[in-house]
Design goal:
Layout (H helix, E strand, L loop, with lengths): L1 H42 L5 H23 L5 H19 L2 H6 L3 H16 L6 H83 L10 H10 L4 E9 L2 H8 L1 H18 L5 E6 L2 E7 L3 H18 L14 E9 L2 H20 L4 E4 L2
Parallel strand pairs: 4-5
Antiparallel strand pairs: 1-3, 1-4, 2-3
């Protein structure tokens, strides 16, 4: 249940994060799709840069042709006329574009004058200076007018582009800031929920651990033993069942507080006797169990003997022991391979071994079967 709850919360916060980043990507995509056509318009012919360059180049060619005709005129012969005619032809081709024809009224009359002049030069005729000035100066003035207008348009487009860019950059900045702040809010909410969930999980684990522990001795209980055997599925284990001989008489003689102290001392004694390798459990009353790795029967027998010997060496006084002056133990052991069904049989076998020890006078150990 806890895992499912955490999974649902994880999916919820993941969805919020994806929505935030999706919004940011949509905003960036929108701005990118806006900027591209604006840049394209700015640097295209309709955006004035190319148009201005064509007008400038055409004007220069016409000025060069005018200079050749005025300086050399008829004296330069056919070579001068050919050079002038070539420049007029190039200037005409740069001048004769749809943008100029549609946007500037002076373009068509100027092209007609250039046609007339070109035809005259092709026949070897050089117009008089007054006529020559009219035929070339009018197109040059028209091209100058186009250049100036194109510069004005370019400045207008530039200013508009800068203003729009600034506005959209502000939108991107504000949008990104808002998404960033929302992300911080989401993160804060997520962190708060995560801490609450961690706290609830820790409390649940604590109570679960408590439910599997004996509150008096701190070792596992019967449920913990069962869970640990299932967790070690397929491994060879040894199970020891340990019982304090005449524990009721001990309690009757010394009182229950002393009996509780003896139980706690027994846990420490068993742990030392088994070298700290065993997991210990209180099965109820004065009966304990130990679970340890056990590859063969010899390991099991050594463990049983070590527990009984350790108690004898401890020599804890038992004022009401029928068979002696000190506390003694009865131990039954079994070796088995961890499995749900095998554990039930192993437990019953160890229990029978334990009762055989009790039937033979206690203070000893046996293994089954």
């Amino acid at each position: 249940m806890i895992r499912a709850m955490l999974r649902r919360r994880y999916i919820g916060w993941l969805w919020l994060s994806l929505m935030s980043f999706t919004a940011l990507m949509l905003l960036i995509t929108y701005e990118t799709r806006w900027v591209h056509p604006e840049i394209h318009a700015y640097f295209s012919q309709s955006g004035n840069l190319t148009g201005q360059q064509l007008a400038t180049r055409s004007r220069r060619y016409l000025e060069e042709s005018l200079g050749i005709l005025l300086e050399e005129g008829g004296e330069g012969g056919g070579d001068a006329l050919e050079r002038a005619r070539f420049r007029i032809e190039v200037g005409y081709s740069l001048f004769d574009i749809g943008l100029y024809r549609s946007d500037y009224a002076c373009t068509v009359p100027s092209l007609q004058r250039l046609d007339t002049l070109y035809d005259a030069l092709s026949r070897g005729q050089v117009p008089a200076h007054s006529r020559l000035s009219q035929d070339l100066l009018q197109p040059i003035r028209c091209l100058t007018e186009i250049e100036m207008d194109q510069l004005d348009r370019r400045a207008e487009v530039t200013n508009r582009f800068v203003a729009e860019t600034h506005r959209h950059q502000t939108q991107v900045l504000l949008g990104s800031l808002m998404i960033y702040l929302l992300g911080l809010v989401f993160w804060g909410m997520h962190e708060r929920k995560r801490r609450l969930a961690d706290r609830a999980t820790q409390e649940s684990l604590h109570w679960m651990a408590q439910a599997l522990r004996d509150p008096l001795t701190g070792v596992g209980n019967r449920s913990a033993l069962h869970d640990d055997v299932l967790a070690d599925h397929g491994r060879p284990l040894g199970l020891l069942l340990i019982d304090i001989d005449y524990f009721k008489q001990y309690n009757d003689a010394l009182g229950h507080p002393e009996g509780d102290r003896l139980l706690r001392e027994l846990v420490a004694l068993i742990d030392r006797a088994l070298g700290g390798d065993a997991r210990l459990y209180r099965m109820g009353g004065d009966e304990f169990a130990a679970l340890l790795p056990c590859d063969d029967r010899q390991v099991l027998e050594q463990a049983c003997a070590a527990v009984v010997a350790a108690m004898r060496e401890a020599a804890l006084p038992h004022p009401d022991h029928p068979g002696g002056a000190d506390v003694t133990l009865s131990v039954g052991g079994v070796q088995f391979t961890a499995d749900r069904d095998a554990f039930a049989d192993a437990y019953a076998t160890a229990d029978r071994a334990l009762y055989r020890v009790k039937a033979q006078g206690r203070d000893g150990w046996q293994t089954g079967p």
